[in-house]
Design a protein that fits this description.
The protein is α/β, with parallel strands linked by helices and 371 residues long. It is built from 11 helices and 13 strands. The chain has an 8-stranded parallel β-barrel with strand order 3-4-6-9-10-11-12-13, surrounded by 5 helices. Strands 1-2 form a two-stranded antiparallel sheet. Strands 7-8 form a two-stranded parallel ribbon. Helix 2 runs parallel beside helix 3. The relative contact order is 0.14.
């Protein structure tokens, strides 16, 4: 049987052997932004063959851009060296292609890690003043962020470029900008959080300006043969917020600027959101973006079963499926899905002794191939 999920896909000079992506997952285990042995284990394990592409967690372009004090960063030489150690390990033992998600948390920064409650940090507890398009707090009880000046916007663009250059020196295959989940670029896109009166606020054209400027600057600094994508929230799930129709317009503009894919998620900008959670609940948004803009799409959200993922790709609703919790639950999800679908997927050399073709007694359907 030919599997759509396990068919290759090429973006620029990068060929991915299948359509399975391990999504960026915040780990809250960095020291002053620098990766630790936890990341060596976390990403190293996935690199052995869990997916064609393994993404490093939301990695912030400045210290002020972190969600928590334990979040990953790529603003210093120390950050770069620590992350290169992890990537080099993955290259030595793994086979997955590697991407990194660059981001700035904006007004959702300066908080406790989720396991500690996720509440805003007070100044005495190490909190910092956050930045945002407008001086509008994320929620009741949250501090008011500082509205960014034009000079700070210029610095922000330079920070994204500098982090992209570090990512290239480290050896990443792909960059994804984080424009969703209520973080800074999403805050500029949504009229709920962006009430500026200058060229960065008001009309859709103005609200898209900063994400497009950052993308253009990063695209120029990133090698032409390497892809760049962006994660977005296709809807705020709140009346008066960012909409799927605006997402399509953004996708068209990004595609013209050289964006290779849009990673389609939803929500997380406003606590008033009401999300109808169900398996694959975000797939219709990825399908709409792909159909109406022509850009390649990734989709994430309660995708857990091999047949479910196969149907999404085979029906053309998205080009990739992204797994987070499902990959944590089963780091070898892709191997198991390939067996279920009758497909082949790469194994790292040191893991080949467990390949089903070498264990026909355990996998009877492999008897013929083994003979």
């Amino acid at each position: 049987m030919t599997s759509a999920l396990f068919s290759p896909f090429t973006m620029r000079g990068l060929m991915l052997p299948n359509r399975v992506v391990v999504s960026p997952m915040c780990q809250y285990n960095s020291n002053n932004g620098s990766a630790t042995d936890w990341h060596l284990m976390h990403l190293g394990s996935f690199s052995l063959g869990a997916a064609g592409l393994v993404m490093t967690e939301m990695t912030n372009v400045s210290a002020i851009g972190r969600i928590t004090a334990k979040c990953a960063g790529l603003w210093s030489d120390e950050n770069e060296a620590a992350l290169k150690r992890v990537v080099d390990f993955c290259r030595t033992y793994g086979i997955a292609k590697l991407g990194v998600q660059l981001a700035h948390a904006g007004r959702k920064g300066s908080t406790q890690p989720p396991a500690a409650g996720g509440k805003p940090l007070k100044p005495d507890d190490g909190g910092w003043v956050t930045q945002a398009p407008s001086a509008i707090p994320y929620d009741q009880g949250w501090p008011i962020p500082r509205e960014m000046t034009k000079a700070e916007i210029t610095t922000l663009i330079a920070d994204f470029v500098a982090s992209a250059e570090r990512a290239n020196r480290i050896g990443y295959d792909l960059i994804e900008l984080h424009g969703g989940h209520g973080y800074l670029l999403h805050q500029f896109l949504s009229p709920l959080s962006n009430q500026r009166k200058d060229a960065y606020g008001g009309s859709l054209e103005n609200r898209m300006r900063l994400p497009l400027e950052i993308f253009a600057a990063v695209r120029k600094a990133w090698p032409a043969e390497k892809p760049i994508g962006i994660r977005v929230s296709a809807t705020d799930w709140v009346d008066g917020g960012w909409t799927p129709e605006e997402t399509v317009i953004l996708a068209k503009e990004l595609k013209k600027a050289g964006c290779d894919y849009m990673d389609v998620s939803t929500g997380a900008l406003d606590p008033r959101q009401k999300i109808p959670l169900a398996p694959g609940y975000q797939v219709p948004f990825a399908e709409k973006v792909k159909r109406e803009s022509g850009i390649a799409t990734m989709v994430v959200g309660l995708i857990t079963a091999a047949k479910q993922a196969e149907d999404i790709i085979a029906s053309g609703k998205a080009d990739f499926v992204c797994l987070a919790r499902a990959a944590m639950w089963d780091p070898r999800w892709a191997w198991h899905a390939a067996e279920e679908l009758g497909a082949e997927t790469p194994y790292a050399p040191k893991t080949m002794p467990c390949h089903p073709s070498l264990r026909p007694q355990v996998f009877p359907h492999r008897q013929k191939a083994a003979g």
